[in-house]
Amino acid sequence: MISEKLERVQRTVINVHREFFDESPSPMKLQKLCYYAQGYSLAEGSELFQEDFQAWQHGPVIYDLYDKFRDYRWCQITEEVGESDSALLEYITDIVSAYGRYDGAALSTMTHRESPWLDARGDLDESQGSTAIITKESMRDFFSAKLRAANG
Prior knowledge:
Layout: H1 4-21, H2 27-43, E1 53-56, E2 59-61, H3 63-69, H4 89-99, H5 104-112, H6 115-121, E3 133-134, H7 136-150
Antiparallel strand pairs: 1-2, 1-3
Helix pairs in contact: 1-4, 2-5, 2-7
């Protein structure tokens, strides 16, 4: 069951993506956009939602979010998702404008090069499945370093 906070984030991500690109994200792309939103939010000192990401074969995944949209497989999420959360709109717009131009596979590849996913998986080969938790601390540390580097 998805928390109310994650529900608001995913709804806003889908709606902003539709507005920017005139199409919905795939479930994989939605997962990665939620991951980047949570990562940067943690780096800025707040948690968007309580759920943890797992270090799956194709990158960070929240199981309940996966389960909600699993029937779409690799296709765009076409269902009506409701209104965006106005309190999240500016923040999510920034994330989607930075990462939304990439497809789900490209975003997955990006996460495979980042320490939160790598550290959670340890010695596992990329082709192996995993339900290891990507800790919020590892996300906060990684995204804090990215923000420091970007801000000089």
